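User: Modeling request: complex.
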Amino acid sequence: MLTYVLKRVLSTIPVMAIVAVLVFMLLRLAPGDPAAVIAGDYATAEDVERIRTQLGLNDPIPVQLWHWMMQLASGDLGTAIFSKKPVVELIGQRIEPTLLLSLCTILFAVAVAVPLGTIAAWKSGSLVDRVVMLFSVGGFSVPVFVLAYCLIYVLAMWLKILPVQGYKSPFDHGLLTFLRHMVLPVMALSVIFIALIARMTRASVMEVLEEDYVRTARAKGQSEWKILIHHALRNAAVPIVTVIGVGIALLIGGVVVTESVFNIPGLGRLVLDAVLARDYPVIQGLILFFSFIYILINLLIDLSYTLFDPRIRY
Amino acid sequence: MIGWTRRSLLALVAMALPLAGAPTLASAEKVLRVIPHADLKNLDPIWTTAYITRNHAYLIYDTLFAMDENFKPQPQMVDTWETSSDGKVWTFKLRDGLKFHDGAAVTSTDVIASLKRWGARDGMGQKLMEQMDEMVAVDDKTFQFKLKSAYGLVLESIGKISSNVPFIMPARIAATDPFEQISEHIGSGPFKFEADQWVPGSTVVYTKFDGYVPRKEAPSAASGGKIAKVDKVIWTYFPDQTTAMNALIAGEIDYFEQPSTDLMPLLSAAEGVTVEVNDPLGNIGFARFNHLLPPFDKVEIRQAALMAMKQEDYLAGAIGDPQFWKTCYSVYPCGTPLASEVAADSIKTGDTEKAAAALKAAGYDGTPVVIMHPTDIPVLSAFTLITGEKLRKAGFNVDMQAMDWSTLTSRRAKRDPVSEGGWNIFHTWWIGADVIDPMAIAFSGDPAKGWFGWPTDEELEKARAAFANATSQEAKIAAGHKVQERLWKIGASGQLGQFFVPVAYRNNVKGLIKSPVQFFWNLSVD
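Assistant: Request completed. Predicted assembly structure:
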């Protein structure tokens, strides 16, 4: 097991290096110029050129890449061109809202979707099953921002029971204030994950319910409840855990729309702002960070399989 | 069946959400919560011309002179000043009690270092420094400008209202290379910047500077008493305009600096919200030709394009509600001292048929016209689409190329032929305060150092120099009109009219200052 973990951790290094080079090259190939954005609308071409030189953007691309790789090798993700803040500090400022939003969303989605999917599988073909599947289709079909605006309109603007926007850290403002600000974004964001996890749970549990050991358990007279929890759900957990893990990774890297609509200063908005401004060090640092998160979560998912399926060994 | 009244639904949801009624803590601290017009990306007002950085800097720095509501420079940090009879030596004395946020007194050395750094970057600053023999610190509070010859824009330069503003910083900070960003943000203005609370892309916090000594005069644009009437100003950047509007209506925010005009009907109808135009000069829309490349290297073809442009169509299409725009056939914003319609007939035609005839007479050979189309800025996107349509109707072979603004700003610096990434037209706007006189870089006719589009015209530069050297108001007006005449004659740019972006605020906010620039002193929250 330890050997497996070590191997997996070491294998991330070449992957990260390839990601780093690819990101660097893609950014340099894309149109747009941070110097032009920095210089402002009223700068002359001469001013822009001087800023390019000062930022090292006029150096040959291999030289720029070499400087960046050397910086990375010393554990430094660089400094933002615009704010002059270290990229690590920017990520540190933004990770809490994104992480907590992602975790709350997934926790809520799992709490709703796993029972729904299990019941739908158990009552396959029934009205309950059809309603769950209908909800699943709906969850996939409604864009997050449409749902978000509807929730804001009803719960914040009309009923005035929740705030429209903003993030309040539980560490600074307390748990209740934090949760009040999380309700709307979590509701908007979790619908698609509820749909996804419910479908996956339903399919996996249905498959397990067809297995011989379930038939044996039934023949031995075990209750349906026990069969569902102990046999079906546990053995169906591997694909469900995979979806949940990938969901967390997707959320950490991709909640741009939700963060924008609810004005949450998270990583999604940071990456979007950096792309629009062509803040190369921030984009590069963030993509590396997201890659690392994906790799880490995949590793944790793989390791968690052993908890659910004793046949899996590393 | 029971009807779903608002009250019953409210009760149901409140039961389902026990956290909903969580109380918020009241605070004795007076806080003004602001949605700024953009994200504050960097903090050095000399390094960048970004308006958001300028607004930030007005909170924390002060200026020697400042423009009043009549666009006249008034003393701000300066107490008294005098000029020698030949106009070559200017002596200034600083007010008593001026100090920086770190407690150090503001001295002549700080002033000179700050002006030197500003003079290396700003257009008007560069012109002033060209005229300067030397700047001398006579004592801690007195300094002198020794000029090579009398210059008509000394106070206008050091009192300019918009980017780059000659803000005064401690000498050790002002010693930073003008092309590098400063790393300390200490001024002598009415608010202090809280560096450790700055979250780029989200939040900026300013606290009242108790050591600030305001002037006695009432505030008038950038001049007069800068009295901080709140303990804190918090800027929260909202990337989504609808959310920003909702936050203002819900009372989570006090002041929304630039709501888009399509939100105006909702904001105007909202309870407890006031919408008003606070900037008397507004913005001036421009279509910029590239004078270096065909077909717009030919004046007759530029003139033909101008004939097709009709301000009403641009303003109605891009801005909408007529209360937020007006036509203006002056290169200087209408309502300012130099504004006039001198020689403006050529831009009033607005007729694509006449433009087509003029284009034919000019011998247009069908050379494609590449128009850069920024799809991420609604007003500019609309301007661009309208130009495309008008030029097509006039007979131009139009090639619209969609891109984001960031790509456009880098591509517009290219002087290469169109086949190698060059361009023919792009659109932008300038705030009125930035084109108030001929010294604006928008009007430059210098092909080497001029602004993107690079009109090549020596006569224009001579006319601008005459303005800079004019010392009486009459001479300045006459020189300004000469510049306008020349700009229209060479068809430097398309003039798309004047438009105004209102502010929206909760009714408990008082003390707004009418100005082209957003100021946060004198604002209170009841």
